[in-house]
Design brief:
The complex is a heterodimer of chains A (about 525) and B (about 120). With about 525 residues, chain A is α/β, with parallel strands linked by helices. Chain A is built from 21 helices and 17 strands. The chains are: A alpha/beta (about 525), B mainly beta (about 120).
Chain lengths: ~525, ~120
């Protein structure tokens, strides 16, 4: 054969492999509003940047007549490319090929690209769309999952790992996304569960649709498994691109600086957003937007535990992670879910050298039997652990209420915050004035002729004396009391000053966080 | 090149209806979350109600109304998670009522038997 003939032969072979599951399967994929695996990769990566490997890999199953079947690429596409020029390793399961089922070689392709990402120290993106284990391949299929989970764990905190759920992801398969840093879901397309509706129906007689059991909204709102929720695949890809622009390629380098831009203060004006009355709600995200570059804030887990807000913004071009109590929901209390959400985000930022800015405004922990019994002690401890353990620059701004255990937990000086600023509206005290007055002056109030009048008087007295930032400032727990509009410049200076911060804890294999 | 799609912000309604939320006797105006409003009310445990702690199928039932049982007697078999689980009497007592039939599929925490 001449070179020309051989090239022709290569093209023919490629054509066969690139067709995926064939026209009918592709049509079926489209009919449910899904893009094909290859279309997804092309839509997500920079134009013409995708380079595919292992196109000619074939499955290795022999039983159940599998040896007579040809599965192009064994149902998964792997390769490298770029997003905004940032290098990326990527794989996408192809549902049109044997339902994207995971067999031995399918898993081999995935683990190969994972190993690649680890060697190259670049982010890994996995697009999941699979019916699950390939039953015909038996224990080899299970082995494949295990190999993936092990690599997910090894790569955790070394390279960013992003999971995109664009189809079913059921049974053991869900644990790969669960082990990664960020999970993206799309309404009506993503489905994640350990046991599906069928099994639940036969075992329990409970009827539930896939969407209600493990749809995108369930995981974005209720379980907290998903970090980003989109209404279309295209919107989801835009979210991924935005996230990638915020995070570094690996744990040895910093996120790339971005164009510096002042916040849109006409739109997000602190004086207008912020009510000084400690009982009135406001949207803390607008405060973040009034501080961050170009008023851009990428919120993580926006729909889960909305009483705390976490996400990325930039200060003078540098990525920072914001953690902020949200008085708009449940008065901004810490509870089981919000503690969990915050702790995980703090650990993410710490692992990838992203400085933390904490905005504090909370009345304390959510009281209730359900909270106590759901383990608010254990979950709440995660926040303390995560902040104490973090060695990235930690800057805290106490904007209003900082009461009791909540004050300590929200990156206080005592958990080794590098800088603690407070607005003049801050109230740093062991508890709210009402509660404190009721306890301290219990007898005086009880024995008074007009208990209500005395109570109000005592509350006022307590408020005047303690509901301010100056008691804490007198002990040096607060470094500076600043005007709200000065926050951005104080933060930028603090970050510049702490650029080369290095802190080393005691040597250990690893701590035992209250998981 | 992919079409630019604007990323939607999750914003509360324009004019939210704030609820009053009490923490340590202080009243705050705020929005409530679904998980908070739908939380389960706590009820004290009742030892006399024998419940299914895992969902499953009711197998053989060994007792009927009025039977006297001793601590540790097998009251019924609950077939669940590929196992025959023996449900034992938590105390000496009398069967007040049997609330399930053999073969029934019971969800978690279904009351199977009431004792007195």
């Amino acid at each position: 054969m001449s070179i020309k003939q051989k090239t022709h032969d290569l093209k023919k072979r490629m054509k066969g492999a690139l067709e995926g599951g064939g026209e009918r399967a592709i049509e079926k994929q489209k009919s449910v509003g899904k893009m094909t695996a290859r279309e997804r990769i092309i839509a997500l990566l920079d134009p013409k940047s995708f380079h595919e490997y292992d196109l000619f890999v074939e499955h290795a199953a022999k039983d159940f007549d599998m040896d007579k079947k040809y599965l192009p690429g064994d149902g998964v596409i792997t390769g490298t490319g770029t997003i905004y020029g940032y290098p990326i390793c990527i794989y996408a399961q192809d549902f049109t090929v044997a339902g994207g089922s995971l067999g031995y070689m399918h898993a081999k392709k995935i683990t190969k690209i994972m190993d690649h990402a680890m060697k190259l120290k670049v982010p890994l993106i996995g697009i999941n769309d699979s019916g699950g284990a390939r039953i015909q391949e038996g224990v080899n299929s299970l082995a494949g999952y295990g190999e993936i989970f092990y690599r997910n764990t090894q790569a955790s905190g070394v390279i960013p790992q992003i999971s995109v759920i664009l189809g079913p992801c059921a049974g053991g398969a869900v644990y790969s996304p669960a082990l990664t840093d960020f999970v993206f879901v799309v309404e009506n397309i993503s489905k994640m569960f350990i046991t599906g509706p069928e099994v639940i129906k036969t075992v329990l007689g409970e009827e539930i649709s896939m969407e209600e059991l493990g749809g995108a909204r369930v995981h974005a709102e209720k379980t907290g498994n998903a970090h980003f929720f989109a209404e279309s695949e295209q919107e989801c890809f835009e979210q991924i691109k935005q996230l990638v622009s915020f995070i570094p390629w690996n744990n040895m380098r910093k996120a790339l600086p971005y164009l510096k831009k002042e916040p849109k203060t006409a739109e997000y004006n602190i004086d207008k957003i912020f009510p000084s009355d400690a009982k009135q709600p406001y949207d803390v995200r607008d405060i973040i937007r009034s501080i961050g570059d170009d008023s851009v804030f990428l919120e993580v887990q926006a729909m889960f535990a909305p009483n705390i807000v976490v996400g990325f913004s930039r200060l003078n071009g540098e990525t920072v992670g914001f953690v902020a109590n949200q008085p708009l929901f449940l008065a901004g209390v810490l509870d089981v879910d919000s503690s969990d959400k915050a702790a995980r985000f703090i650990r993410y930022c710490d692992a990838f050298s992203i400085p933390l800015v904490t905005l504090v405004d909370l009345p304390g922990y959510l009281p209730g039997v359900d909270q106590e019994h759901a383990g608010v002690i254990r979950h709440g401890a995660k926040v303390l652990y995560a902040y104490s353990e973090a060695t990235v620059p930690k800057i805290t701004v106490i904007v209003r209420k900082a009461y009791g255990g909540g004050y300590i937990a929200m990156c206080s000086r005592h958990l080794k915050a590098d800088f603690v600023f407070a607005w003049p509206t801050a109230e740093i005290a062991v508890m709210g004035p009402e509660g404190a007055a009721n306890i301290i002056f219990r007898n005086e109030i009880k024995n008074a002729e007009d208990p209500d009048k005395v109570r109000q008087l005592k509350i006022k007295e307590y408020k005047k004396k303690f509901a301010n930032p100056y008691v804490a400032a007198a002990y040096g727990y607060v470094d500076a009391v600043i005007e709200p509009t000065e926050t951005r410049s104080f933060l930028i200076h603090a970050l510049e000053i702490s650029q080369h911060k290095s802190e080393e804890g005691p040597k250990k294999k690893h701590g035992i966080p209250p998981f | 090149m992919a079409k630019k799609v604007e990323i939607k912000k999750v914003e509360p309604n324009k004019e939210p209806k704030y609820s009053t939320f009490v923490i340590h006797t202080a009243k705050y105006k705020t929005l409530l979350t679904k998980s908070f409003t739908e939380r389960k009310k706590w009820v004290p445990a009742n030892d006399k109600l024998i419940k299914a702690l895992i969902p499953g199928n009711v197998g053989k039932i060994n007792v009927k109304k009025g039977d006297e049982v001793k601590l540790g007697d097998t009251l019924l078999i609950l077939e669940a998670m590929k196992m025959y689980n023996q449900i034992l009497a938590p105390m000496d007592g009398i069967i007040k009522s049997v609330l399930v039939k053999e073969g029934a599929i019971v969800p978690k925490l279904t009351v199977l038997i009431e004792m007195e």
